[in-house]
Every structure is written in C-alpha cells, then in structure tokens.
Amino acid sequence: MSAIAVVKLILQILLVVLSLLLTLLILMHKGKGGGLSDMFGGGLTQNAGSSGVAEKNLNRWTVGLALVWVAIIIALGLFTKFNLA
User: Fold this and answer.
1) pTM for this structure?
2) pLDDT digit string, tens, across residues 21-53
3) Do 48 and 38 contact (CB within 8 A), yes or no?
4) Which of 5, 7, 23, 72 has the greatest CB tally within 10 Å of its CB?
5) Cβ proximity of 76 and 8 under 8 Å
6) Cα distance between residue 2 and residue 54, in whole Å
7) Which helix (H) or strand (E) holds 16?
8) Please, are residues 49 and 20 in contact by the beta-carbon 8 Å criterion?
9) Which stretches are transmembrane (predicted)?
C-alpha cells in the first residue's frame, strides 16, 4: 500500500467522522423560527436577539468543521480526478 493510498484512506475515515460530528453540531443549534414550529406556537418563547457565549462558540465550531469537511471533499475529489490512489 502506497503512501498516497494511506493518506486517501485517512481522509475518507476523517470525512465520515466529521460528517457525523457536523450533523450533531447542526442539530444542537437553536431554531431561528419561521418554520412549522411558529405555526404551533413554538416561536412565542424565542428571544430574537439573545445569543449566548455557548451558542456563539457552537457557531464557530460548526463553521470551522464545515470548512475542514469541504476541504477534505475537495482533496478526495482531486485524488479521484488525477487517479492518485
């Protein structure tokens, strides 16, 4: 097994782990309203302007992991395009 094949395998495993983690982080976000929850009274308890430190950190982690996730997908696409492994 070549070094490039090992790197591709590591990227694929990392992609699966990051996909699961990114899904969990997205599900942890608070709803912003405007959906079906507002029709049934869910929007009445939401404070529009309040965003705590924890939510800001959650946003940062989500965006950071999403950028890494996209970079891995691009790298794997380049491996496939140029038949490196």
Assistant:
1) 0.77
2) 999 999 998 877 655 555 566 555 555 555 689
3) no
4) 72
5) yes
6) 43
7) helix 3-28
8) no
9) 9-29, 61-79
